[in-house]
Design goal:
Elements lengths: L9 H13 L1 H34 L1 H4 L2 H29 L1 H20 L4 H28 L6 H25 L6 H7 L2 H12 L5 H6 L3 H11 L5 H21 L4 H10 L2 H19 L2 H14 L5 H29 L1 H28 L6 H5 L8 H6 L5 H5 L5 E4 L9 E4 L2 H8 L8 E2 L8 H15 L6 H6 L8 H53 L8 H9 L14
Antiparallel strand pairs: 1-2, 1-3
Helix pairs in contact: 1-2, 1-7, 2-4, 2-6, 2-7, 2-8, 2-9, 2-15, 4-5, 4-6, 4-24, 5-6, 5-8, 5-9, 6-7, 7-16, 14-24, 14-25, 15-16, 15-24, 16-22, 17-22, 17-24
């Protein structure tokens, strides 16, 4: 997928500073297109906080985990369609129009969500935003790559990856800023329209990708743009390099015989190099999602509440840490992936992920096992009609955990000393207000997790999980996918891997809350721990090391008769 993080060498960053000072047009171009990455990251993060307040405003959302999952995951479903449509639109209409259309979709989706009168309308807005995200995730890095000088291309495309994590961090800050404002979630979701509008206006003043123009035989326009991008002493050489590259690409396409998608797929899967490369590439992309990262990015505040922090604003503030660690990990990866190697970095990352998920599972098991008791007398203070029906039938002997798992949707009103016995009430807006009211002592209302003295351990494990994930499994799978496919099949194989990534993302996002209800939070993280351990084994057996190898040498390695992914390949042997 073109939306992956391209690896930049340290010399590229030095050249970037020099070239952009000489040719400021390059920086304007990269910044304008890079806003697409910011939008991608913002949408990933903003829904995690907005969901807390959407639940408060719509009782049907509060009582339905499937509806909550749908609100979150429909953007992912839209992104799958948007990424597929974006690939066709990029080739048919150009990179610049595709970015403009993505901005309009994002702006429309933001406005629909901002003024949504019902959960169904929010879902429509999420689909529109997802379509824009899917198109932007493919098109923005492609546009930057094709319109930037070769020797700083990696550094410029890497900034797109950094802007994705920056967008996630910004979304948590904005979520936190609007917690005390009337219409909280509407502002959180509506603000996303501002950068989309900004990018739309900036892109109107920018040219099309010179590579796309050259392929469409609009060579004069392409050369004019390149004279703005390259220093005068480099222009002619770069124009010649572009001509050679485009003609080579077109020759590769002719070698496939114009057989269409089906014919290209048959030829691709008929090659042992492609089969082995695709196995490694798709495995990395699927593992990236199935280790559970988007449960953290989409549901981070909810997980914090499951750990015993009931306040929405507290949950958002604590979740800000995970987003910051994710952004820092992306920077670390850029500097270490060529030193440590792709395979080793992913395996080390997965080992850390397994340990952290096991710790999270243990912490949530302790939270469930040591939750406060339910006080019959304390519950009776709120009146018989407010009491949770199942607790009323049981009479006594319940804990907070049993209260929250009651079939009729109940909540726990904690004592002023949160670890002492509290009240088990039927979940409703009236019960929540009564619990938080002055007459009851302004207590905390829990519907996701119970008060606990172990909650801080969950935050430590969550932070360690992000630190383990981000430098390895967060960015390296995209790099592997840019290196393991033969040039003539790179587009189709990259598309297959991207669809696998988005589909796995959708699976995890749509099932997480349901899993926590069916298996418990501890059981859900234990499941992710088992999947991560299996991923470690499969990556060890099936993903080769590509560090330091040229594309031709990677193809030679994958095609060798004695190929074993875990064995170091010597191209000179």
């Amino acid at each position: 997928m073109e939306g992956g993080i391209h690896k930049a060498e340290s010399t590229e960053f030095r050249d970037l500073l020099y070239l952009t000072s000489q040719q400021p047009f390059i920086l304007r171009l990269a910044f304008s297109a890079g806003i697409g990455g910011l939008l991608f990251g913002y949408d990933t993060g903003v829904i995690s906080g907005a969901l807390l307040y959407i639940r408060d405003d719509f009782e049907e959302v509060e009582k339905s985990t499937v509806l909550q999952e749908t609100i979150v995951s429909m953007a992912v479903a839209g992104a799958i369609v948007g990424a597929g449509a974006g690939g066709w639109m990029n080739d048919r209409f150009g990179r610049r129009p595709s970015i403009l259309i993505a901005d309009l979709l994002f702006l429309a989706g933001s406005m629909v969500m901002c003024f949504a009168p019902a959960p169904a309308v929010i879902i429509v807005g999420r689909v529109l935003v997802g379509l824009g995200v899917g198109m932007a995730s493919m098109t923005s890095p492609l546009y930057i790559s094709e319109a930037s000088p070769a020797r700083i291309r990696g550094a410029l495309v890497s900034t797109n990856g950094l802007l994705i994590t920056a967008g996630q961090f910004l979304s948590y800050l904005i979520n936190l800023a609007f917690t005390k404002v009337s219409g909280t979630w509407r502002w959180m979701l509506g603000v996303a329209g501002v950068p989309a509008l900004l990018q739309f206006l900036l892109m109107l003043a920018l040219p099309e990708s010179p590579r796309w123009l050259y392929r469409k035989d609009r060579k004069g326009e392409a050369e004019e743009i390149m004279r703005k991008v390259y220093p005068p002493d480099e222009v002619e050489g770069e124009i010649e390099a572009l001509r050679v590259s485009v003609e080579s690409d077109m020759a590769q396409e002719r070698s496939l015989g114009g057989a269409g998608l089906a014919g290209t797929l048959r030829k691709a899967f008929g090659s042992v190099v492609v089969r082995r490369g695709l196995t490694a590439g798709v495995l990395c992309q699927v593992a990236q999602q199935l280790v559970g990262i988007n449960t953290v990015m989409y549901y981070s505040p909810t997980i914090v509440q499951l750990a015993g922090f009931a306040s929405n604003s507290t949950a958002l503030a604590l979740s800000l840490v995970t987003s910051g660690l994710n952004a820092a990990g992306s920077v670390v990866s850029m500097f270490f992936v060529d030193k440590a190697g792709r395979r080793r970095l992913m395996l080390l990352s997965l080992a850390g992920i397994v340990a952290c998920l096991a710790m999270l599972s243990g912490v949530f098991f302790a939270v469930d096992s040591h939750s406060p008791d339910v006080s019959p007398a304390g519950t009776a203070l709120f009146g018989a009609n407010a009491t949770c029906p199942e607790f009323a039938a049981a009479g006594a002997g319940w804990t907070c955990t049993q209260c929250l798992r009651a079939a009729s949707e109940c909540g726990f009103c904690a004592d002023t000393d949160k670890l002492l016995p509290g009240a088990c009430l039927a979940a409703s807006d009236e019960a929540r207000r009564a619990c938080r009211g002055a007459a009851a002592g302004r207590r905390e209302w829990y519907t996701r997790g119970c008060p606990s003295s172990f909650g801080w351990l969950a935050l430590v494990a969550l932070g360690a999980y992000i630190v383990s994930y981000s430098p390895g499994m967060g960015s390296v799978p995209w790099l592997i996918n840019s290196e393991v496919y033969p040039l003539r099949f790179r587009g189709i194989c990259g598309g297959i891997a991207a669809v696998a990534n988005w589909t796995s993302n959708l699976l995890v996002t749509q099932t997480f809350l349901s899993l926590t209800q069916a298996l418990g939070t501890a059981g859900t993280f234990l499941l992710f721990c088992g999947v991560s351990a299996a991923s470690f084994l499969l990556l060890f057996l099936l993903v080769p090391e590509t560090k330091g190898l040229q594309f031709e040498e990677v193809e030679q390695m994958l095609g060798s008769k004695d190929y074993k992914a875990w064995k170091k390949f010597d191209p000179k042997a």
